[in-house]
Amino acid sequence: MKALSLIPAILLFTSGLHAQSYVHKPNNPDILQNTMRAGAVRHEIVIPDVNGYKVLKADLHIHTIYSDADVTPELRVKEAWFDGLDIIAITDHIEYRRQEDKMIDFLNARVLDGDKAVNSNVIRKDADKRGIVSDLNLPVRLAQSAAQNYGITVIPGAEITREPVSIGHFNALFTTDNNLIYDRDPLQALRNAKAQGAIIMHNHPGWRRTSVESPETEQKAYDEGLIGGVETMNGSEFYPKIIDRARERGLFVAANTDIHDSATETYRAQGQLRNMTLILAADNSIEAVREALENRRTLAWSFGTLAGEEQMLKDFFKACVSVREIVSDGKYTTYAVTNNSSLEFMLQGSGTPFRFRPFTSFTAKVRKGESLKWTLLNCWCGENSNPVVEM
Hints:
With 391 residues, the chain is of the alpha+beta class. 27% of the residues lie in helices and 30% in strands. The chain is built from eleven helices and 23 strands. Strands 3, 4, 7, 8, 9, 10, 11, 12, 13, 14, 15 and 22 form a twelve-stranded mixed beta sheet that branches. Strands 19-18-21-23 form a four-stranded antiparallel beta sheet, covered by helices on one side. β16 and β17 (332-339) form a beta hairpin. α2 (73-82) packs across α5. The longest helix is centred in the N-terminal third of the chain and has 19 residues, at 2-20. The protein starts with a helix and ends with a strand. The model is unreliable at 9-15 (pLDDT under 50).
C-alpha cells in the first residue's frame, strides 16, 4: 500500500514538470531547463502613416557611460528596441564626462606587492602623466555597430554643455567628428558643429531657470541661425511657451528623455511610454530623417501630451482616428469613431471631456449634415492653444 501511495505523488510531480514546461538539457540530463522563460519582447507602438509619411519614434537626447550615464551605448540600443523606438541619437556631453574619473581610477588601479604599491592594471604609468586622449566618437560607433542587429537608426551627435542658466545646453545632431567641436567660446563651438553639417537642437530651455526667456549668449545663437530645433519636452518637464518660439523661428519641436539612468527604471517600470520625438519621414534612413527635421515634420510626445504645429496635430489625429457611419434616420446620423493607434487622446465635444484610449471605439450622434467636432485637450499648438478638429 505504501508503494501504491507513491503513485499519486509521482503523477503530481510529473504533471507539475509538464505544467511548468521543464525539459532535460541534451548535454546534461541532470539539468532541467524551463521552456516557459520568455525572451525580451519589443513593445510595438502603432501609429498609422500621416500624409504619406511614416511616423518614426525617436529619442534625440541620450547619454551613456562615456559621459555621465550608467548604461553602455550597446544597451541603449537594446532599450530603444524594447521600447518601440526606431531612431536614437547618442549625444554624450563633450565638456562633462563624470564617468571618466572612474575609468582612470580603474586603469590606474594599484595593489600592494609586499610593502610596495604597483600598477596592477592596463596603464603602466599614471594616466595624468601621459595625458588622457578621449575619442568622443566612440560611443556613437559602438551604438551604430549594435544597432545593425535591431534595425535601429543611430544619429551621431554630442551635447555642447555649458553653464545652464547663462548659456545653456545644445545637442549637435548628424555630426561627423565630435572631437573637433569644442571651443572655449560656446558660440564658436556651435559654429564648429554647424560647419560639419550638424543640426543643432536647443535642450531643456527652462531647466534650472526662472523662465524660458533666452539669456544673451543663447539669444545670439538663435539670431545667428545656429539653432534648428528645440525641446518642448525633456524628461518630465514641458515648456508650452517653446511651442510658440518654434513656430515663430521655424524650428522643429522635440520631446526627449535626456536619459542617464536605465530607461526601464524611469519609464517602463512606472508603466509609462518614454518620451518620443515623432518624425514624419519617408523611411528611417539618416538622409530621410535629416530631411524631415530640416522641414520641421515633427511632433513632441511625453506622458500622454502631444505638442507641435496646429495643422500637423490635426492631420496626425485624423490619420489615427477613423469614422464609420452606423445608421441614419433622416434626422440624425450615428457614427462609430475608432482610435487605430497606440496613443491616447483627450477629447472635448459638447459634453464632458473624455479619454479616447488606444484601439477603442465609441459612438457619436449628430444632426444629419453636421460634422463631428472635438477640441484635442492633450494636444498643444501654442502656450494656451489646443487644436479643434472636424470629421
